[in-house]
């Protein structure tokens, strides 16, 4: 009984890390077609930003860097591009966390928009100017905007489900 409780507590504690690695190993990018257009959003950005902002002890920067390397291999990008994007997102989320007095979903959401715009710009610049990989800027921006629009839903879900379970397990 005690061993089962410890295992459950450890699985809940490392859930964000497991979820992040499942997403990068599968190359999961939720996409759907709507009126003949392909829409997608970057679920990894949501996971990284949310957990670095709300529960920073569950995702280490080394693990996030390694997840970026794995993502580059799976997505066939130059090694290190995703890691730079992920760590930049971590830096922005950590900065926001250190300056935030009162947690507020609206402020998190606006700052997430700023963060993904910065990251999308760095990603586009790195891939097109340095590595000369053709990327359609419109698709990248629609992906960023849709990721921004999905953030409140994911944040609310994780706040109510995952973080509440983690807090109750810490008691």
Tell me which CATH architecture applies here: Orthogonal Bundle
Derived from helix and strand composition plus strand pairing, the structural class reads mainly alpha
Low-confidence regions: none
How are the strands of the biggest sheet laid out side by side? 1-2
Q: Round the Cα radius of gyration to an integer and report it.
A: 17 Å
H/E topology pattern: HHEEHHHHH
The tally of beta strands, per DSSP, is 2
Mean pLDDT: 88
CATH topology: Arp2/3 complex 21 kDa subunit ARPC3
How does the SSE layout of this entry go?
Layout: H1 2-13, H2 15-26, E1 31-34, E2 37-40, H3 43-54, H4 61-75, H5 81-99, H6 105-130, H7 137-170
Antiparallel strand pairs: 1-2
Helix pairs in contact: 2-3, 2-4, 3-5, 3-7, 4-5, 5-6, 6-7
Keyword list:
single chain; mainly alpha; two-stranded antiparallel sheet; 7 helices; 76% helix; 5% strand; Arp2/3 complex 21 kDa subunit ARPC3; 171 residues
Briefly characterize the structure.
The protein has 171 residues and is mainly α. It has 7 helices and 2 strands.
Task: Explain this structure.
This protein is mainly alpha-helical. It is 76% helix and 5% strand. The longest helix is centred in the C-terminal third of the chain and has 34 residues, at 137-170. The mean pLDDT is 88.
């Amino acid at each position: 009984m005690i061993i089962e409780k410890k295992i459950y507590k450890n699985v809940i504690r490392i859930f964000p890390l497991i979820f992040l690695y499942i997403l990068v190993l599968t190359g999961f990018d939720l996409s759907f077609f709507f009126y003949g257009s392909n829409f997608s959003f970057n679920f990894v950005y949501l996971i990284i930003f949310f957990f670095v902002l709300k529960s920073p002890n569950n995702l280490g920067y080394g693990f996030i860097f390694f997840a970026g390397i794995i993502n580059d291999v799976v997505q066939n990008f130059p090694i290190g591009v995703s890691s730079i994007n992920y760590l930049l997102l971590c830096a922005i989320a950590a900065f926001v966390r250190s300056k935030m007095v009162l947690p507020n979903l609206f402020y998190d959401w606006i700052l997430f928009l700023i963060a993904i715009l910065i990251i999308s710009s760095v990603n586009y610049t790195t891939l097109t100017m340095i590595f000369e990989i053709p990327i359609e800027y419109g698709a990248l921006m629609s992906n960023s905007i849709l990721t921004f629009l999905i953030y409140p839903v994911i944040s609310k879900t994780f706040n109510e489900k995952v973080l509440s379970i983690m807090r109750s397990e810490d008691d």
